[in-house]
């Protein structure tokens, strides 16, 4: 596979991840702290959900190997 094609595929994957992250990036349970001009957002629940989804996907793909 050409290096150019790899970069195009990686770019599309990152673009899709960014679009998906916008929709699930602010789930209930995520920690947001605001004080003055500073905003700190820690997406703990979002991270757990993404981790569970990836674990299930890797488990399913591992079964077909």
From TrEMBL:
Spans traversing the lipid bilayer: 6-24, 36-61
InterPro entries (alphabetical): DUF2905
Keywords: Membrane, Transmembrane, Transmembrane helix
A Pfam family this chain is assigned to: DUF2905
Domain of life the protein comes from: Bacteria
Annotated PANTHER family: BSR5223 PROTEIN
The protein, known as: DUF2905 domain-containing protein
Annotated organism of origin: Virgibacillus dokdonensis
